[in-house]
Write a structure and sequence with these properties.
Nucleotidyltransferase, domain 5, alpha+beta, four-stranded antiparallel β-sheet, 33% helix, 33% strand
Length: 377
């Protein structure tokens, strides 16, 4: 959930390595271990992969030390799901290697985010009496309460979907509110009360989607420290708690999926996804202009300058020219369909138009999409 620009290495001499350059094994031995304070996160997208290394600040912020962006060499992922495990694994290794070389750190743990393909959500409440009146609700009690709520959400998903839902995995959850003796509180741990409760929204993805990500990471010998849903990660970064009193919607239009997160009344209200995004527009260019997918991607990225004349070669090897505006005109039905699909999801989840919509992701940069979505809402 982002600018698509590659991080540059720090200052230093360039050119042919000297004969005294250390072997890769010796260089790796010199790297310091990752340590508990350093966080390595991967956004494994349908078109690109972004690795970020940073550390938490004492004030609650996050300091980004370095990042690396690389594109999948082929269509290794479709609609946010891993198709070619080996190819995705190799790209993870490349991203990891570049970051390790620049930072001098041996990365061993990674946090990953999953796109919301075939997402299911459940909103549940759990209440529990404490062992004795006016007892301390410590962290262990709160974790147990949340775990009980997630189990209830899993059962709800199973009942709604039958046997097919047995293969769904919880990839994250957001607290709507805690309750202490019947009164809502933002944090429960540390309070003294007789009765406590939690209301949360849990997100579930098919086991096959999650297992594909784990299998790709396993090729790198990295340990998965945590897994979350992309819209959960995005809304926590981009819409802070103090803004969630407003009815806001965040839409991450990627290549394969459009992930949606909605907040209102100071809490996250729902998550949703649409299996239509930037790739559908690229595929339309493939069909209309008789080009391969990578050429279609290049043409699509050039649409921000509608007056430009674009040069390309079609699959027959013939050189061609086209105005960017002509491609935009041919894509308008696809842009309208994408906007209407996302708008329908927002209206269904939110019960009406939100106060504002934030668009992020590479697919959101297509000219005219924001205007089309605004018209649908």
């Amino acid at each position: 959930m982002a600018q698509r620009a590659k991080a540059q290495a720090g200052p230093g001499k360039r050119g042919r390595p000297s004969k005294t350059t250390s072997s890769p094994e010796k260089e790796h031995a010199k790297k310091r271990p990752q340590g508990e304070d350093l966080i390595f996160a991967l956004d494994i997208g349908t078109r690109t992969m972004i690795g970020v290394v940073g550390e938490r600040l004492n004030g609650g912020g996050f300091l980004v030390k370095d990042y690396e962006l690389m594109e999948h060499p082929g269509r290794a992922m479709i609609d946010g799901q891993v198709e070619d495990i080996a190819q995705v694994g190799r790209l993870i290794l490349e991203v990891q290697r570049h970051l390790e070389e620049r930072l001098g750190v041996s990365l061993s743990r990674v946090s990953i985010a999953a796109a919301g393909r075939m997402l299911k959500t459940a909103r549940v409440c759990v209440d529990r009496d404490l062992p004795a009146p006016h007892s301390l609700a410590d962290r262990q009690f709160v974790v147990g309460l949340e775990g009980e709520a997630i189990e209830l959400a899993q059962e709800q998903i199973r009942q709604e979907g039958g046997s097919q839902s047995d293969n769904y995995y919880c990839v994250g959850y957001s607290i709507i509110e805690y309750r202490m003796d019947g009164h809502p509180v933002s944090q429960l741990a540390g309070h003294t009360c007789s009765h406590a409760g939690v209301e949360l929204i849990a997100a579930f993805l098919p086991y096959s989607v999650v297992e594909g990500l784990y299998a790709a990471v396993d090729m790198t010998k990295l340990e998965v420290a945590s897994l979350t849903l992309e819209p959960i990660a995005a809304i926590n970064v981009l819409i802070p708690r103090e803004l969630r009193l407003l009815n806001l919607t965040l839409v991450d239009v990627g290549a394969g999926t459009s992930d949606i997160a909605i907040c209102r009344d100071g809490r996250i209200a729902s998550y949703e996804m649409a299996t239509i995004a930037g790739d559908e527009l690229s595929e339309a260019i493939v069909r209309d202009y008789l080009v391969d997918f990578s050429t279609a991607e290049r043409l699509k990225r050039s649409l921000t300058q509608p007056k430009e004349t674009l040069n390309y070669e079609n699959v027959l090897g013939m050189p061609c020219q086209v105005k960017a505006q002509a491609i935009l005109d041919s894509l308008q039905p696809g842009i309208d369909l994408l906007a209407q699909t996302v708008a329908d999801k927002i209206l269904k989840c939110n019960g009406g138009p939100p106060a504002a919509v934030f668009l992020i992701g590479g697919g959101s940069q297509v000219p005219g999409l924001s205007q089309a979505l605004a018209a649908c809402l």
